[in-house]
Structure prediction request, 175 residues.
Amino acid sequence: MFEPLSDVIRLRRLQRNLTQERLAKMAGVSRRQLSLLEDGRNVSLLFLTKIARALELTELPIGDLRLRAAPPELAPIVRAADVLERLKQTLPVWASAAEQIHEATATLDDLLDRALATAPSAREFVDATERLANLPPGEREAAGDTLRTLAQPDPAVRTPRPERPAKPIARRRGR
Prediction:
């Protein structure tokens, strides 16, 4: 049968002329926990891995099993497989988001087409400008106030200006 794990660790530490204190420091663990391992107590797999690396052990006897270090190229492959699995799980979310983006783009294109289709022509702008210019002064001023109010970017800011009293129209003499 295999040697107990605690004996393997102690023997390897002594072969390397290391104290428990020195090995614990090299592995980044506590000396007390290392002492518990060498006394045959249970420790975490992470702790055991740190000790095995510090002692350059590639195989550990655990019960009837022998744990061997994975080949160096295996770790990146395992990480890549994990990443791919996570990506597969998020793929439906991304597909749904892409579909929503396509729908939003189609809606925006439709709105732009409608807005551009109903836009007045340059001739209509010129005609409207001439009609405004030919309004009587009081009506022209009221139209200007209305246009300035409509030009405000925020509807909350669009407060109507106070109405000005209409100027009396001078009557012609000599009728």
Q: What stands out?
A: Helices lie at 5-15, 20-27, 31-38, 45-54, 74-117, 122-133, 137-150. The first helix runs from residue 5 to 15. The chain has three domains: 5-68, 72-119, 122-155.
